[in-house]
Amino acid sequence: MRILPHDVLLVVDVQNDFCPGGALAVAEGDQVIEPIHRIAPFFEHIVLTQDWHPANHTSFAANHPGKQPFESIQLSYGEQTLWPVHCVQGTKGAEFHPALHLPQAELIQHKGYEREIDSYSAFFENYRKTPTGLASYLRERGLGRVFLAGLAYDYCIAYSALDARQLGLDAIVVRDACRAIDLSGSVARMEAEFGKAGVVVIESKDICG
C-alpha cells in the first residue's frame, strides 16, 4: 500500500500503564512499538494520543465505592466500563513507553482529561458531543487518510477508527501494530463494526513490503 502525502499515522496511547507492568496492561502491549517504528518512516505526518486522566476520573472503579474494575455502570451518557486507576496526569504510568521513539511527531493529542466523561476515541469524548479538535486539525492540514496503530485495538483504536469514518476520513488499522484487551468479546464486536463502517485492516508488511 502506497503511503501518500495526505496520510497520517495516528499512534494511540503507547503509554506505560497500557504496557506490561502497567496498571491496565494490555497483553504484549509493548510489542506494538517495533512495527510502529518500522512503518513510521513512510509517513510525513505522525500524531500521538495520550490518555491523560485526573486522579478522580469517573471511569476509575476506585472512585465508585463497592465497584470493581471491569464492571459496568450507567452514567448520563450511557454504559461505562470501570477501569483500574491508570494514566493519571503527570505520573510515570501516563508517560509514553520509553522505547517509543517518534521525535518527528507533529502533535500530542491528550484525551480523557475531563473528570466526568471518558474518551476512548481520539476524535470525540464518549458522550459523542464534544470533539477533541483532532478532526479540525487534520482537515486544516489537508490530511484525509488515517492509519492507526497502538493500544488497545478493541477500544481506543477501534473507537478512533470508527469515528474517523463517521467524519468522512479513510481509516486503516495496522493490525500487527496493535494489541487488544478482548473484554467480553470486544474484538469480535468491533471487527463487525469495522465491516459495516468501511474500516480497512492491514498488516505492517502491506506498507513496508
Gist of the model:
With 209 residues, this protein is α/β, with parallel strands linked by helices. The protein has helices spanning 33-39, 134-141, 153-166, 186-197, 205-208; strands spanning 7-12, 46-51, 72-75, 78-81, 107-111, 145-151, 170-179, 200-202. The chain has one domain (7-53, 88-208): Rossmann fold, CATH 3.40.50.
Please provide a written account of the structure.
- This protein has 209 residues and is α/β, with parallel strands linked by helices.
- The chain has one domain (7-53, 88-208): Isochorismatase-like (Rossmann fold).
- It contains five helices and eight strands, in the order E-H-E-E-E-E-H-E-H-E-H-E-H.
- The chain has helices at residues 33-39, 134-141, 153-166, 186-197, 205-208, and strands at 7-12, 46-51, 72-75, 78-81, 107-111, 145-151, 170-179, 200-202.
- The chain has a six-stranded parallel β-sheet. A two-stranded antiparallel ribbon has the order 3-4.
- Helix 3 (153-166) runs parallel beside helix 4 (186-197).
- The longest helix is centred in the C-terminal third of the chain and has 14 residues, at 153-166.
- The protein is globular and about 50 Å long.
- The N and C termini lie close together (8 Å).
- The mean pLDDT is 95.
